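INFO  loader      accepted 1 record
INFO  loader      residues=416
INFO  predictor   begin
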Amino acid sequence: MALCLANSLVVCQDFIPYDQLVRYKWWHRDGYMSSTGKCFDIGAATKRSLEEFEQRQRVFGQKYSISPKEIDFLSNPELIRQFNVDCSQKGVAGNGALMRLAPVPLFFSQYPEYAVEFSGVSGRITHGDKSAYDACRYYGALIVAALRGEKKEQLLADNFYSVHEEWFNKKQLHPDIEKIAKGSYKKPGGYKDGIRGKGYIVHALEAALWAFNYDGDSFEKGVLAAVNLGDDTDTTAAIYGQLAGVYYGYKGLPSKWLEFVYAKSFIKCLSEWIVYEGERWQPNKSHALIMTNCTPQQEPGATTTSSITQKPNSNPKTFSKMQQGSGSMPQDASKMRSGTEYDGNFQSAPSSKKFSHLTATVNTRQDPHSGPGSNWDSDRSETSASTDLNPAQYQDSTRLSSRKSHIFNSVVLKEV
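INFO  predictor   done
INFO  writer      dumping tokens
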């Protein structure tokens, strides 16, 4: 799901929850971005949300006369705005919202307010409880702070929220997340002191931060500590690894583990694309700010995701850990952007006979004179402030606008 989310950000060059859900659906139904070519180990809450998304697509398609083959490729901002992307039931607070988070704060790190808000929204579309939304906001803020070079003692300070309150748009955290932010995970005894790596997002976040706090500045020790808590071991380690990976950097990862990472070349290329497109993203060119009418559990006086865009950061910083500043295309990216096949040098998965070799192909439009993806900005349609839409208005122009000029790029795995 993290790869699905990363692909969506790079391909859309923006935060488009609808497209994120489409890719999660592809993973669920077709094994998109799976190392085995099949979806495995999907959580119950995530599955229910994706099934609800598909049902809403069917209703939406009937309303606007959009065929099932076209419904995944909507791109008109005004139309997508009418689609309710919060597909979770109330009170859902599983750890699945948090384990896939990292691409969002990595992409939007130059604009911390947006990175934090979009982190929350990215989780809430499948996990609707406010604790899940705020767990993702808080953890997204930690990742952004680590990218900005803050030390571990600053990241784990009990006053982290108050120091970075502007990043949170001055919206208070859920009480359970606030306790964690104030250091509830600082228990040297770990499991003996009640730290549990369970499926509840509050417990999972606390366990991951416990591992980060007591890892002895070693990514390897932190991962093993997270796993050895038991219960939902892989998710606890995945949550730990997002923050620890940013803090320690690629060179801090155990080389003996890196040797066995599946699709390593593809993942590295995709990571470089996150940096490249994230550098180019600007709030005043984003359709996400129109389409994400978020925070239904909003507190009195708090600003919405849309209105947060009225005050973009004026001095975005460059972060050395993200290898920013060159402005050049990532290595091998020209092949991906030109629409030709990109050989990701995948090794076949030991457990899968279906894929003997995999390549990643990207469908895109490119202006050869102004770099990858430049046409996306220039082609964006102006959107109306009105939300009263006539379904008949979209029967022809909107549903096929994606094919003519705005079709979402698709990073796909295909069997060769």
